[in-house]
Amino acid sequence: MTESQPRVDTALVDGNTRPVAQYLARHFAWTVQEGVGCIELMRPERKNPLTFESYAELRDLFHNLKYAADIHTIVLSGAGDNFCSGGDVHEIIGPLIRLKAPELLMFTRMTGDLVKAMRACPQPIIAAIDGVCAGAGAIIAMASDLRVGTVRSKTAFLFNRVGLAGCDMGACAMLPRIVGQGRASELLYTGRSLGGEEAERWGFLNRLVEPAHLIAEAMTLARDLAAGPTFANGITKTMLHQEWAMTIEQAIEAEAQAQTICMLTQDFTRAYEAFAAKQKPRFEGN
Fold first, then answer.
1. Which pTM value belongs to this model?
2. Residue 14 above 70 pLDDT?
3. Which of 25, 84, 8, 16 is closest to 286 using CA atoms?
4. Where are the alpha helices (DSSP H) in 157-281?
């Protein structure tokens, strides 16, 4: 690799190119453990609300993760006993009512860009949900690939409670695909809370765990995925997202091409050789 060639696991952060694993977050905690990137929202006294700045920084981090070959999965959680209470009432909601339409559209596009960046990054995202998961917090949980929660979690798409439509940050497109059209309609029209046990029955939560074990369970799942064929997992995530807009015929052809690419990887060869030797494969993501 020459001086002019960028590292494939780096991204442009604050105008400087450096490994994403070394990124120093300002508005949340960011750590990397064994290939797992951990994002923790850090305002527990307010139930971890989002601000203009944290929205933008999360968007930028997820965008940069497209270039982070050393990070294979993401765990997203909140400090304390809550996940995220949504947009900060005083730091976001108050200022928004004083803005005109062009500035409001800039804001709603920026928040939507966070969801786009979450869906576009190749790493599977695991949301660890405890306590309050409301408004924009429910959206970023929805935009994650997998959700681990507790019985005391309360997920609510609160937008109609503040005079807004439920169609926020992709909710009308994504939520029906997770829980079904009728159930999504109920949540978006009423803004009611979805308890942990009901959320698991509806398919919003993949599993329920004890609150004390939430982060450990999420990290175990993340490490299991990180130990798998991470390039292929990234292809799976891409196809899960892109095939929403495809016909069945288009999806089958797209998957044929995607699987061909995966068959060219060394991980595919390693899996065959391990199977032939009656061993467990060791994937390396290439």
1. 0.90
2. no
3. 8
4. 171-179, 181-190, 196-202, 214-226, 230-242, 248-263, 266-276
CB-based contact 62:118 (threshold 8 Å): yes
Measured in residues, the chain has a length of: 286
CA-based angle 75:81:85, to the nearest 5? 80
What would the DSSP string read from start to end of 74-122?
EEEEESTT-SB--B-IIIIIHHHTT--HHHHHHHHHHHHHHHHHHHHSS
- Which residue's entry shows tokens 């917090």? 137
- Which of 139, 150, 146, 134 has the alpha carbon at shortest distance from 81? 150
pLDDT tens figures, 86-102: 988 888 888 888 889 98
Cβ atoms of 114 and 61 within 8 Å: the answer is: no
Is the distance from CB of 198 to CB of 159 less than 8 angstroms?
no
Q: What percent of the chain has pLDDT over 70?
A: 94
CA distances from 203 to 79, 179, 192, 198, 200 (A): 24, 6, 17, 9, 5
